[in-house]
User: Fold this.
Amino acid sequence: MKPILEKLTTQEPRYSFVLQKDEYDNYPTPWHYHPEYELVLVVKSTGQRIIGDSMEHFKEGDLFFMGPNLPHVFNNGPEYYQGNPKLKAEAIVVHFNHDFAGDRFFDLPEMSAVKQLLTNSRWGLKILGRTRKKIAEGMEEMLKESSAQRLLHLLQLLEELSISEEYRMLASMGYVQMAQQEDANKMTKVYDFIMARFRDPITLNEVAHIANLTPQSFCRFFKSRTRKTFSQFLNQVRVGYACKLMSEEHLNISDICFQSGFNNLSNFNRQFRKIVNRSPLCYRKEYLVGRFELD
Assistant:
């Protein structure tokens, strides 16, 4: 899936990298990529995220580290677009270039572990466990620090990440970005259509029309760029939304099934088990007693 190039700049001349806390009604950035590394902490909100060809539900407290030019998007659930003032989307984000500390800085022998971390980040990393908590706390502290303190603290966080094994690589090893802008425009239109309409019936003819392709050509086009069939992708979006609805105790499994875009309970149960490796009922029970984590 080919995204839109986003051009980032540092906030002020005295900083060599970007550190900011973003606050929105919903995350506004489209499917995109940029040449900078990105460390992002989800402070508030939930939804679906895609990093490379990895798509999962995200929640408050999730932490990700992404390498240069890795396509990604964080998309909030439909409820964040309905004007509810109590729902906010917040994140702390760090962006830095490979040479922000000097042209050959990461080639120094002392930085060998960090250099390997940067290499691994090209597939996107989800940071887990105690490391996630420690890095999240460090990012919060950096917002209050002077410019010199921020620089030293960032290098410390990269060191912490480089020695930790508490992470999961996200994009598949064979993930390849597509380079043509025409593909980018088609995939952006298709993605936006799916995220806006996934709770309604969507036919192959409809989505093929969005891409200005025949259904047969669209199927080849979509799978070559996402490594998934259209139906697999759509089911993942719907199941991810269903996982979020599981936290709302007043909804029964049948309600969640239909609100997520499935038209019958048996198909919902089958697709949910295939993607989550649990039945919806088992997932809800484990979620509500606090024993099940998506990590």
Remarks:
- The longest helix spans residues 147-163.
